[in-house]
Amino acid sequence: MKHGCRSCRSRVHPIVYLSFFVMSLMLVQYYVKSCVIIPTPNEPQTSTHFQPVGYKAGGASHFQKLLPKDASTDTTTEYLVNEKANHTSKEKVLPPMLLEGPDKFITWNKSTWSENTVLFGRSRNITGYLTIGIPVVKRKREGNRYIYATLSSLISATTASEKEDIVVVVYMSDSDKAWNMETSQQINERFSGYIGAGFLQIIHSPLNIYPELGKNANFNRDSKSRTAWRSKQNIDYAFLMWYSKQLSKYYLQIEDDVISSRRFFGDVQNFIKRNSAIPWVVLEFSRMGFIGKLFCSDVLPRFSTYLLSMFNVLPCDLLLTNFRTLHNQASPIFHRKGLFQHIGKISSLRGKISPWTDTAFKDPVDQSSFDIHWDNPVAEIDSNMDAVRGSFPENAYHKTKNKSLFYAVKNVKTNDFYKVVFSNPINISRVVVSTGHPVLRTGVLKRGQVKVGKGPGGSGDRCRPDQVVGSLYEGEFDSEIQEYYIPPNVKCISVVALCNVTKPVIIRKIGVNIQT
């Protein structure tokens, strides 16, 4: 019996038809207004699993009929460009990438894939059991080292025999091609043995697969920069899935800033077997975004096309929810424990910090192992917060061998503060504040500000922090990642509460680096 991915025989809920009708109507209106034609995959479908209502395997020919008789597939780009020049209305025609996208991915044969796409690695002669796809993008500072932790985790968590059933595809998807090449070379040098064995492949793509990013249908009301970021993410995922669709029986998507649990591969296999008696389109091994989503590989062409057709409408995780619902899987199917943990606080979206973790992760994680070096110059610590007995403010700032120490307070009142006063004014390059439990995210100071001061205040105050640097986001603050300006000659830093908190709060870490 083929595990999972069977045709759904269950009675379809009316809401599925309603959702499909609304989405179809929205897509038709969007395509007509944009003058964009999206072909469906023209290769033969090897499976009939989860065929949505109205789906036709030969759909590409239907869209081709919409072109003029003299417009062949090879000249559709030129045709659309000419049409754009003749278009007199104010509404612009979208770039022709959406027409070329899936078609371009499909028509590349195996040798062309190898020549144009693979930077390092080789294909195996047999189909594997599991492909793990990892899109990689450039991040600030130590964020670029996340991918090494991710790969090391996958390698250490699998046995030699398991590695023969797994292919890890690292997709260098940043727009900075020089960085892609440099980083891929570093990965190749560090993991050369696994690349030579066919366990690890590194690929990239040409920049011309991307249309103009930042435009959307205003369904999610995101900013232009965020829309461009998530739109590119959808296209990246589609490209990675098209490449991976024939490597293994199953495909698992993770991110470049996660670590895996021990023996995750066996857990994945067992979960697939346990769900073999029910129809499914996606199994989930994490409750975070698009991390740990598993598909049958024969579903990848259809889902990739869906991502491309809706690339600028919604984020990938919401598109996955729609896709799953339209394919008769009404609810997500989660593994009881998370098998992949998010470790990266530095988001690939500029100016964003991402402190999220999977609270259901299977294994304990020492988050301090991912900390960077802090200067933390000599300073006096002062706080008016109501501390838990035996907990001291110095625990969050002073360096000790016990990295698990923190400052715990019973509750917090508005304008309560935690202050660091330096011996002499210093020039600071970076300030980091972390509150709450690093995994469970309890004890977080959600509403707070970081202030700095340059001189003494009234009533004998050694330093009065009177200049706001920025705000905490979900209990975290990083001046460099969030792009906050820190003035020169700082005498003191203060973390100030902006509201009452009746529950205990943890001030876990205060990090300060000095300009060199």
CATH class category name of the largest domain:
Alpha Beta
SS summary, helix count: 13
CATH architecture of the largest domain: Alpha-Beta Complex
Q: Please count the beta strands (DSSP E, at least 2 residues each).
A: 19
Residue fraction in strands: 15-25%
Strand order of the largest sheet: 1-4-3-2-5-8-7
Domain count, please report it. 2
The percent range for helix content is: 25-40%
Shape: elongated
How far the N terminus sits from the C terminus, by CA atoms, comes to 64 Å
Q: What is the CATH superfamily label of the largest domain?
A: Spore Coat Polysaccharide Biosynthesis Protein SpsA, Chain A
Low-confidence parts: 6-12, 28-101
Word description of this protein:
The protein has two domains: 14-342, Alpha-Beta Complex (Spore Coat Polysaccharide Biosynthesis Protein SpsA, Chain A); 370-514, Jelly Rolls. The protein contains 13 helices and 19 strands. It has helices at residues 14-34, 59-64, 76-86, 97-107, 110-116, 146-156, 160-163, 177-190, 192-196, 224-244, 264-274, 300-309, 316-326, and strands spanning 118-120, 128-136, 166-172, 200-204, 248-253, 258-260, 283-284, 293-296, 340-342, 379-383, 386-387, 407-411, 417-426, 428-435, 448-453, 467-471, 476-478, 490-497, 505-514. Strands 1-4-3-2-5-8-7 form a seven-stranded mixed beta sheet. Helix 10 (224-244) runs antiparallel to helix 12. It starts with 13 loop residues before the first helix and ends with a strand. The model is unreliable at 6-12 and 28-101 (pLDDT under 50).
